[in-house]
Write a structure and sequence with these properties.
The strands form nine sheets. A six-stranded mixed sheet has the order 5-20-21-3-22-23, sandwiched between helices. The longest helix has 20 residues. By secondary structure, it is α/β, with parallel strands linked by helices. It contains 27 helices and 33 strands. The two termini are 41 Å apart.
Amino acid sequence: MKPIIHIEGARTHNLKNLTLDIPRNQFVVITGPSGSGKSSLAFDTVFAEGQRQFLASLSVSTRKLLRQLDRPDVDRITGLPPTIAVDQRGHAANPRSTVGTLTEIYDYLRLLYARCGLVHCFQCGQPIRQTPQSQIINAILKLPPNCRLVILAPIKTAEKNGHHKPHVQPPSDYAEVFDNIIKAGFYRARIDSEWCDLASPPKLDPAKPHRIETVIDRLVLKEGIRSRLAESLQLALKHGNESVIIAYEDISKAENTNPASAAPNIPGTWHDLAFCTKYACPHCNITYQELEPRTFSFNSPYGACPVCEGTGEKGDGSDSVSSADSRSFAVCPECFGSRLRKEARSVTVADKRIDEISAMPVENVFAFFRHTDLQNEIAKPIAGQLLPRLELMNAVGLGYLTLDRRADTLSGGELQRVRLADALGGGLTGACYVLDEPTTGLHPRDTRRLIETIKLLQKRGNSVLVVEHDETVIRAADYRIEIGPGSGKYGGELIRTNSGTETMSFAPPHRDMNAFIPQRIAATSPVKHLILENVCTHNLKNLTVKFPLQKLICITGVSGSGKSSLINETLVPAVRKQLSQTGSIQSLCSGGNIGKLIEADQTPLGKSSRSNPATYSGLFDELRKLFAQTRDAKRRGWKANRFSFNNDSGGRCEACRGQGTQKIESEFLNDYHAVCPFCNGKRFNRQTLTVRYKGLSIADVLDMPIEDAAGFFANIPPISRILQSMQQIGLGYLPLGQSASMLSGGESQRVKLAAELAKTETGNTLYVLDEPTAGLHRSDVFRLMDVLTGLVEKGNTVIVIEHNLDVMFRSDWLIDLGPEGGERGGYLLAEGTPQEIAAIENNATGQALRSAC
């Protein structure tokens, strides 16, 4: 009998008492309409119970130190292995996290550089090696016989004595330095490359640093010299702070380049050999600490740049406020954005610094280490861990990312694939991985590679449970589970399960290319354009792009090809700047007329969990006004602010300060939040909750799904208009008070778009959306497209960055970038109607369009 995960009586959220068996060690897809209960089954039931069972398996003494997890609303789950979630929610908000740290690739790089790196002096650039005294002696004895030696001990006077020590000021009188040398029993020195007798030393400028090296001994290299050499060397290391300089005569050179009075009758050319038993530059008198992995960590004071403290950025000192409502920042002038102190930036492996490696695309890092012969025995096992992780990053379509890319700049799909690569690199077996739409942000060309990566995870003996809408992934699965039939209260039912090639209700109809081409294309009126010229943002290669106005434009291309660079980081700022100056755009590089810009991206609705669809859209303001007009509120003299959980006007629960949860601090784990026991998560105090509108309190209204609220408030136009807009765009299943931290990027974006759609239509508006289909079932995609095409028919322009084929089919105009991601991308490959793009042979987007028909 094949092993299974048996679920009995699952009622989490909208699930309707589900009982089903999920085969273990297989690639399983859960599909269904948006809001049908897929995530409730996969994450809030299976994953949550897996976590709880794992903690329950620990000893009682250990469990006392850990927070206890609530059991999901399910009767029983058996056969469940340890679970690992790879979802798209904000796990990397910390700006210190990078692609390298998330995947542990940077940890292996730090270990490689600490164990095998070659240290260079950050001041003179000369290599610095740790050399034991025995090796120094052997190196000297390899010099030609009978050559003359001068053993010198460098004296520190005016340089930094290590990056952790304060600057040593030049002495006001060098006579004291010379006296100390004489007291130690030495009478000659080399000062600024000139030999001198300390009985009559030169006068030195105290305002300038000087190199002073004490002559410890003068020898001729011959038989029986080893004992004296060892003695003199030990004395030189003592007085030279573990550094020594060996000046030796090159007797093959006849010309005397240094006829020094302190070393008379020296006929040859003289050279220096510098040695140190610790990391120190004998020329610059700079001492370095032992190399450790933390030396290369920008999250540690041992490795972080002291100016920017490891952030790579420094406030520019201006009072200007950026669009993110924060002070402007610039690249740190000390570390140039690398985040590391100069000592760490002076270490190389195969002539590359660690910050240079981090700034390279992953695919280039993989090629570099694959073709670099690391002879060091310590380096080989480290490289053996690095290369598979780098290869996995390429396999999930992220080869264009650099290792120093900040994690909080990644899209939800990119972040999830980074974490998927990390999970694969860990090599675990016997676990259950739960993935949330891993194809988000992925071009159809790369979906097949992602599927192979997921199957590799499964072939290692793991169970893989994937929540997905993409038909290619669904068809590739070993087993399929469909939840539905609708969203919210109309979902939560097990529609069917199957394996093999059986047809399910998600199977799409055959696409007809001609049937999807909108009639707007055939309009005979001349088309105006918005034109960008000579765009070089990030990897874009000097592009000139025309955007036809009053059309639905889809920006396509493989991941990392430059779509966001073109739209979000070039077009949007340019339009916003010109609108702020003139109030409308009559010409942006010979463009047309635009009166307003609306940008709906996937960033969270607010900076805290207090934000929700009701507060963001302005609906909550109208609801508070409505409750303030009730008889009970008027009788008590309560105004609209009484019904806010964001201020201390007397209405909110003060125990949780309107959060609905209380923060529980843990010494051993991350802090977590539990439902407030005083208000039971309702956010308001008992007195406020006694005020009701048609039998419902303000907390009851916030708990209502949008589709229910739309019917409940149908006769109140200010409220009804916003609710209908949200329902129209496929958000009817969301509760009005759903915390912003619990929304996916796609849901956040659709809330923003709905809030704008609810406003008075002005026309001549430019709408910019970044992958709005994230998290949408195909039926919901068609609803969204009806909304977007309706905007275009009213005289607006809609620009959508998208990989979804249905969006491509129903767009008026496609602009395709590529051909690859990163430095191999950034070219304008094609532009035209979907028919025209599909006719191009050697084009990834055209091939995807043809394959979908």
